Structure formats: structure tokens, C-alpha cells
Hints:
Elements: H1 2-17, E1 30-34, H2 41-57, E2 61-65, H3 72-79, E3 87-92, H4 93-102, E4 114-129, H5 138-147, E5 153-156, H6 162-174, E6 179-182, H7 186-195, E7 200-204, H8 205-213, E8 218-222, E9 248-256, H9 261-276, H10 278-286, E10 289-291, H11 296-317
Parallel strand pairs: 1-2, 1-3, 5-6, 5-7
Antiparallel strand pairs: 3-9, 4-7, 4-8, 4-9, 4-10
Helix pairs in contact: 2-9, 2-10, 4-11, 6-11
Amino acid sequence: MQRRQLLAGLAATAAATATPWASAQSEQPIRWIVPYPAGGGTDVLARTMAEAMRGAMGQQILIDNRPGAATNIGAELVARAKPDGLTLMSADNAVLAFNEHLFSKLPYNPEKDFTYVGGLTRFALALVVNPAFEAKTVREFIAYAKANPGKLNYASPGNGSPHHLAMEMFKVRTGTFITHIPYRGAAPAVQDVMGGQVPCMFLDLAAGLPLIQSGKVRALAIGAPKRFASLPSVPTLAEAGVPDTEVFAFQGVLAPAGLPAAQLQRLNGEINKALASPTVQKRMADFGMESIGGTPEQFHAMARAESQRWGRIIKAANVKLD
């Protein structure tokens, strides 16, 4: 009798302390919010991670694309969700470093409304042009922009995206005037660059590497501290004569504020495990991504440092989205 009571007590304790992945809640899928349309680098990475994680967690992870309002639609959705471990979000520079400087009022507070779960990756952006564009180097590109002030347009996946702010940094550093043409996502933006409707853009290597290697767009330089192994002939912006212009997109995972510590620890562990898997490592290498990983605290510190860095650029460029 005592043995039965002891076993029953242990079972009750386990049930009370179980994480969602060990309870009936595991029958519910995790919703992973991506604040961009399908097909871009953020979406590709989220789907790669979800595929790697769902087997180990024994739970479905469904990607939910919620683009719009410079990522604010997706971010607000997560900020208002229950902290039950069933809502995650891909968060990038826009959500965590740009928007607090671009908008006078946000529908979320990046410090108070989220649990920082962990970093995923960072990847450099490249200045690319249509293959028929006359400028063959960054110096020629700058000379063309200065000789044609206001006549040169550039595409981006949307207002407030890393690609948008990368070109604004470039403009500040080079004293050029290039007009912004925002799109709803990276895919339609780069399609128009390939088609010649818009001559140039900053494109993340996660989405752009195959296009550069196939000649569908031409890379003039990358915003990384050193050349990328898969593009050895493409100089860095510093080598091309534009110093202090390191431009990269970072990705991490957020959950609503108040996520219990046990769930946070489990999710962070699963993210780091997936990042270390050969499948994810190869996919990231193929797309020019650098793994971040680490603890929630490290991801939080990096995001806040990037917010300070980009806040200065946004102020210098006088960019506002409201």
C-alpha cells in the first residue's frame, strides 16, 4: 500500500512539473511566427530549424507567415500571446534593433514584452546589381549615383528591413542619394532587380548566394569583415573603399514575456542542439549563414548592442516610418 502511495505521489509530482513537451499539451502544435512572406532568408531558416527540432521535441512546429508593418504585425501577435511555450517567433534586426528608432510608438516593447530564447544566426548582406547595370565596382556605383542624384532606385523587402537600413548606412557613408522602393518581401524585390525594373539592392546571402553564383545578379561587395569563402572574388565594402560599413542580418527566437524558466531552458537547449546538427550546419553554410547559438542572455545582449549601433545610423539618415 505504501509503495502504491509513493508511486502515485511521484506520478503526481511529475505531472505537476512537466513541461508542455511531456504532457497532453504536446498534442498541440507550436506556432512559429515569421514576420516576413514565405521564400526569404528568415522563412528558409525558420523552416530548417522547425524540421530539425520537431523530431527531438515530439511535437509539430508550424510556420505561420505574418508579414507587414515592418514586422510589427508578427511582433505584436507574439507580444500578446500566452507564455505557454506554444508561440515562438523569428526575430531579426527589425524587431529588436530598428523599429524602436524608426517608430515614435510601437505596439510592443522589445525589453518587456518578450522572452529572449536564443540566437540562431547572422548573415552578411551584399550590394548587388542587375547584371546589365553599367557599374562594375563599388567605386563606379558611387560615381554613377553621384552623377545621377535622385535617379537611381534601390529595392528592399520592406520599410525597416535590414536590407533597407543597410543601403541607408551605405548612403550615409558615401554621401549618395538613392531612392528607396520597398516591396513586400525579399522574393519580389530581387525578382525586379533580376528583371531590371530596379537596378540594385542590398541582398542577404541567405537568399542571394545562389542568384549571385548563377549570374542572375552581380555582387559588387559584401558587408562583412572578411570575404566570403563561396564568393572569393567579391570584395568587402571596406576593401572597396567604404569603411565602417559592416551590414548583416541576425536572427533569433522570441517567446512571449513570462515564459517559465523550465520551458525556456528546454527550448534554448533544443535550438542549440538543432544548430549543431549536420543537416542544419550544411544548410547554413550553403546560404552563407554564421551560427550564433548560445544562451538567452547572450542573445539579449547582442540585440541591445545592435539597437544602439543602428540607432545612430537611423538618426544620421533621418529615417522614420510614421
